[in-house]
Request: fold
Amino acid sequence: MWLSAGLVLLLLLYFMFRRFRRAPVSPNPFATDTSRAPAPLVCDQEARKQVLHKGFSANKVPGHLDAIVIGSGIGGLTAAAILAKSGKRVLVLEQHDQAGGCCHTFIKKGFEFDIGIHYVGQLHERSLLRILIDQITDGQLEWVKMDDVFDHVVLGESQTRRTYQLCSGEKNYQHCLQTQFPQEKEAIDKYLKLITMVAKRLPQLVIIKMIPLRLARFLIRTGIIHWFTSVFKLASTSVSDLVNSLTKNKDLRTVMCYICGDYGVMPRDASFLMHAIVVQHYLKGAWYPKGGASEIAFHIIPVIRKSGGDVLMRAPVQRILVNENGEAYGVTVMKGEDEINLFAPIVISDAGIFNTYEKLLPCEVQSKPAIQAQLSSVQHGMGGFSVFVGLDGSKEELGLKAANYWFIKENNIDDLFIKYFSLKDEDLIQRHPMMFVSFPSAKDPSWDDRFAGKSSMVIITFARYEWFEKWKDERVKKRGEDYENLKMGIARGLIEQTTEYFPQLKDRIEYIKVGSPLSNQFYIAASCGEMYGANHDVSRFAVETIATSRAKTPIKNLYLTGQDVFSCGFMGASQGALICASAVLHRNLYWDIGNLKKKIKKDESKKKV
Reply:
């Protein structure tokens, strides 16, 4: 075994040497700590528009571009900022009128609502994610820790309702679960040990995406990869199978499974590998950006501009330009009736694998076997349905907490969703098996300074794209009475369920805005209204799919970034960006961040002496 291990190590070193020898290595973007004390929050909307809403025109495009990034979600902005910190001039093109993707917010009738950033884990001091975000924002983005009980799982209805709490801190998380399920200590211990084991082996998922694909396939097809780790075997185990093997307590099973809602897959179809990544992500607690989710893009964009790049809105990319040699060399942007070609030696797409391969590439390129193989290995994820509610009253008046609430009608999520997904649209009004409720205003300490005496609530549930597909070709806000009636009927049902638990909110509702999968398709260019990109089921986490879902595409000079490279959510999309930027810069950026972390720690120690 040790001989085989030595052979694999030699092969790895050989391929890595060949890879980096052939390409010049770019400067280290994390050579120094660029974070500084945060400046005061910018509340002036005109000043914010100059950053977040800068519109596209040909004369605003910087000259001599090093890279073009399609999409301004966290995956696109992070990749662009890292390249900018390495001295590259990068242009980010966003089809919407505001930067940020799922990190953007909107303000209506005196209320602000977040679209997709409801809570983020692993932002404790000196975590890899915190250091990364500090560097790409120059330390200007502040994070506020949510309540110690950051998630409440509410099972059942009315008189049968039970509420379980999830607490921040690894020991607190374990103790909290064991206190609520005193007869299930052994099951809880086993569950958390598996979570920790997967978390420790998380770097192996990154490595398999960053080593040469030929080497990755050799390790997989020979079975050698399983000699070193069991983590990929857990990837083929469903969450339901694993959890059901640990306990017969249905409530505990549901509490162990509820966080499947954070990546949009039923427990029976979800990979335990993905599940463990998400659970581990929140073991130390949850954080929220001070000033709201739009602060994320607001503080990344200046870093991109420092190196001569820019982020431009209302710039829908129509196609990726590919020359006769099969190399990407730019993009075509639609401006009114005109098509404008922009050129750069590197093109990075944060538009998702389906949009990139099926809509943006020329037909003859789409048909390449390597591209079709990647597309066939993933499926569209589940659509989302959102209700944004403006409330009259402060968080103190309304008794709101900096926490999330998961409402689940029965203690069998799989059965609930099998029934739910088989419904026709006319049956959807009152039947919502699972929903997520959160209060952005209660999480943000700057809220009262900006929206005094008001509060905001967001309700989210799953919805199939097919329920709304017949209206997909209608203009936004002009889809007709039937569409609006269906949306508002679902919204009223969700609000009614929520106010049963929070009766103090019933007479305080001032504003309601509803988003369907078609809204996701229009505003964040989700190809089928998905919340989380490609589906995070067991098949996506097959080891071969993990290895081939990488930043470097079969098209030379074209790269993918964001959640379809690694996994969904803020953390997953950021990791996708790190992997992407590593490939573009021919650097191991994880190594660079690790070295910066050591340097920061050393400098802090010196200051204490």
